[in-house]
Amino acid sequence: AVAALTVKDLAGERVLVTAGPTREEIDPVRYISNYSSGKMGYAIARAARRRGAEVTLVAGPTCLADPWGIETVRVTSAAEMYEAVLARLERSTVVIKAAAVADYRPKCKAPGKIKKTDAAMAVELEKNPDILREVGARKGARLVVGFAAETGELVANARKKLLDKQVDLMVANDVSQAGAGFHVDTNIAKFLYPDGRIEELPLMGKNELADLLLDRVTALRQTGAK
Ligand code: CTP
Ligand code: CA
């Protein structure tokens, strides 16, 4: 009943959303990852679907069930997420990159469980591809939304990422703040735009933030800005 009352303002849009962390394997039993729960990205995917969009969700390892009515592609590593996103980029009209992609991966994955010794050990890491940067570089007529997770200098850092990665809207959040970021159901975000505009938002639920973000996406698509 609620779905029937929703304005289908995203009808005709094909929205690609990424969510969750990635996992970079060290050996068959260990990995490097981060605290992302996937809740924000899943909330965006569900809200976009409710508002009439055709949605594809590329998700890293999360505890969340595949959302109803949404093509969900499960990946593990950043390299797999990169492949999955690039393969689906062409047909998308909006890309929203809420995933917390691991910046580095172990240079070699040990084939067997690494045994401990008395010596200290180091794992050599190499850089993962930056998916959002690649999407921004191939943007075309698409609208691209990024997320920036910061623990200080929020606006300056997020603004730099917005320009570097050529995104149209950056959702900046200070993950060191209580009520924002990982695990919790709420977020405190700022929307940053390429023209320097900043919209400061109060503490709100991730579902509410998802709808507010999609309001801005719709507006940007309709003003022909994109
Ligand atoms: N991102 C990505 N691929 C990566 C790293 C990040 O697509 N390899 C995307 C994230 O999904 C997010 C945005 O880039 O939308 C910003 O991620 P963030 O980790 O905040 O910024 P980085 O550019 O990785 O910089 P740093 O971690 O050094 O702050
Ligand atoms: Ca990063």
UniProtKB/TrEMBL annotation:
Reaction catalysis annotation: (R)-4'-phosphopantothenate + L-cysteine + CTP = N-[(R)-4-phosphopantothenoyl]-L-cysteine + CMP + diphosphate + H(+); N-[(R)-4-phosphopantothenoyl]-L-cysteine + H(+) = (R)-4'-phosphopantetheine + CO2
Domain of life of the source: Bacteria
Domain DNA/pantothenate metabolism flavoprotein C-terminal: 10-219
Coiled coil: none
Alphabetical keyword list: Decarboxylase, Flavoprotein, FMN, Ligase, Lyase, Magnesium, Metal-binding, Multifunctional enzyme
EC number: 4.1.1.36, 6.3.2.5
Function summary: Catalyzes two sequential steps in the biosynthesis of coenzyme A. In the first step cysteine is conjugated to 4'-phosphopantothenate to form 4-phosphopantothenoylcysteine. In the second step the latter compound is decarboxylated to form 4'-phosphopantotheine. Catalyzes two steps in the biosynthesis of coenzyme A. In the first step cysteine is conjugated to 4'-phosphopantothenate to form 4-phosphopantothenoylcysteine, in the latter compound is decarboxylated to form 4'-phosphopantotheine.
Protein name: Coenzyme A biosynthesis bifunctional protein CoaBC
Organism: Geotalea uraniireducens
